[in-house]
Amino acid sequence: MKLKGLGKKNTQKTKTNITIPQIRWRKISKNKILITNDIGKWVILNELDFKKYLENRIPENSKTYKILEEKQFIRTKLNFDEIYSTYQKLNSYLFRGPYLHIIVLTLRCNHKCVYCQSQAIGEEGKKTDMSFATAKKAIDITFQSTSPNITIEFQGGEPLLNWDVLKKSIEYARKKEKEENKKLFISVVSNFSKMDEEKAEFLLKNEVSICTSLDGPEKLHNKNRIYNAGNSYEITLKWLRYFQERSKSGIYEINGKKYKVFKPSALLTVTRETLKYPKEVVNEYIKNGIDSIFIRPLSPIGFAKKVWDKIGYSAEEFLDFYQKALDYIISKNKNGIIIKEKTAELLLRKIEKQEDPGFVDLRCPCGGGIGQLAYNYDGNIYTCDEGRMVAEEGNDLFLIGNIKDISYKNIFDSEAVRGCSISSNLESQHTCFRCAYRPYCGVCPVINCEAENSPVGNNIISQRCKIYMGIFDIIFNKLDKNKKDLLNMIEE
Amino acid sequence: MIYNIDKEIYSYEALKIANEIVYRIHNKKAKINPKNDKIEIETEDDIIFKRLLNEALNQQCRMDLFEKTKNLSKMIITKAIVSAMGEIKGRKK
């Protein structure tokens, strides 16, 4: 669609018919300027071309002009149909309700991980176990979500310590799935210490996806994930291999019935100790046949905030680790060993394909409440798992209400959900509003609250902002220098 | 110590919010009183006063930007919340 003359009114000294729509820019390296627009399209220009672009001096018959036109950077040649559909694709979360529902079955855990609040509870004492009646109500609320696809993530503590309720909850959720005609994905996050054949069979029969923690090589894993009753690393690998073996064919068959089996996945928690071993951590994942590694920074919230002096690090230290690990992954990929880095994958799906990867942490507004809900063992509902974690330390700002006396619709009337949405809107964040990474990024009110004492936060001093800016810089520099290096991260 | 601040630079609202944030960090609050075209800030701690002004500037920028972008902000937030909430009684489909 061509709109002749649109925007000319505000343009001075126009030498061609180019006028500039709203863009954001950032110098990503010497002589290279990244420009982005609201629909997530981007172009990297050299300084001279950028200057020409701002002065409307790019010749219409040039290659640069054609690229700028195609990516909606020429105001007089905007295609509004494409702009609308691309915006909707990139921000599809704005058009559906919460799809991620985290159910915390217990705070009990038999591990004493250096970064986790569950270490204060221990394995004994069932006061922090969720009852089936509460779990049932949580699942009922889950199925009222307007999202056609739902993920229920059972976690803890260690959810297998509350096995009876986990088992009944999975059966109930599968029954509801049929009644409500929604697509349900169930996952269980476990340290495997209480796993046995019977439980594994049940999970496979119910098409449950299994996720565990693998913090790197044995010495590092066991240093982070302290388990007095055994070797956490060995237990993790034993069951990881068990589920990998079962997932090879993708189908689990028993008594003539066929069930879909998902590949088990593992999560990495990066502590100060991890920073010393970027290659070793990647090698550990490759060695154990895990084809994806999620390198995420540790958040200084809840219990981790209390021990930040021992386990935390600066944004610069994390970025150095991230760069080394990503370079190593790319070098492995070039040698035919396929392993993806999840943060890069999520960002590249936004940057390269203008897709919503369903990642609740980087959105505008954030996914708290509108993208995810966390149900604690006592029936308290929080905007997100991070909000629940800070509540364990006494900050109830992200508490929506209790399952006993709240309806699904009331959730979105709550101060917690509205406060989260308003405070995380990037249009009102003066640093984000102008940032070139705005179309792909998001802020976290919980981290802001913990680090800067306000849900709105102050991105000028935010470590989280520094980390994501750094990751975006790394990714865009790689896209500029050798795009192919990164593109296999988003190949199916 | 009493400091007089120009209302044209820092609004009373921005200073009040900033005072709460500084209080959560330093456990100390300044007294803030609007007086004609000035705002009076009373604190014994010079560092608290400086932190307060820095935070007030941050809040002021945010509030000024919100004034400019509020229509767009409200549209995005409303869309997100209405999509999550589903059908509202009395609202035409």
What does this structure look like?
The complex is a heterodimer of chains A (492) and B (93). Chain A has 492 residues and is an alpha/beta fold. Chain A contains 19 helices and 17 strands. In chain A, the strands form five sheets. In chain A, strands 12-8-7-6-4-15-16-17 form an eight-stranded mixed β-sheet, with helices on both faces. In chain A, helix 4 runs parallel beside helix 5, helix 9 (278-287) packs across helix 12 and helix 12 runs parallel beside helix 18. Residues 1-14 of chain A have low confidence and may be disordered. Chain B has a three-stranded antiparallel β-sheet with strand order 1-3-2, covered by helices on one side. In chain B, strand 2 (31-35) and strand 3 form a beta hairpin. In chain B, helix 1 (12-26) crosses helix 2. Chain A binds chain B through residues 93-98, 144-146, 364-365, 369-370, 408-409, 412, 417-418, 421-422, 425, 427-430, 433, 452-454, 456, 458, 460, and chain B through 17, 21, 24-25, 55, 58, 61-62, 64-66, 69-70, 72-73, 76-77, 79-81, 83-86, 88.
SSE arrangement:
The complex is a heterodimer of chains A (492) and B (93).
Chain A: E1 24-29, E2 32-36, E3 42-46, H1 47-54, H2 63-70, H3 80-90, E4 100-104, E5 112-113, H4 132-142, E6 149-155, H5 163-180, E7 183-189, H6 197-205, E8 208-213, H7 218-224, E9 225-226, H8 232-247, E10 251-254, E11 257-260, E12 265-267, H9 278-287, E13 292-293, H10 302-306, H11 308-311, H12 315-334, E14 340-341, H13 342-353, E15 372-375, E16 380-382, H14 385-392, E17 399-402, H15 408-411, H16 415-423, H17 445-452, H18 463-481, H19 483-487
Parallel strand pairs in A: 4-6, 4-15, 6-7, 7-8, 8-12, 13-14
Antiparallel strand pairs in A: 1-2, 2-3, 5-9, 10-11, 15-16, 16-17
Helix pairs in contact in A: 4-5, 9-12, 12-18
Chain B: E1 2-6, H1 12-26, E2 31-35, E3 38-42, H2 46-85
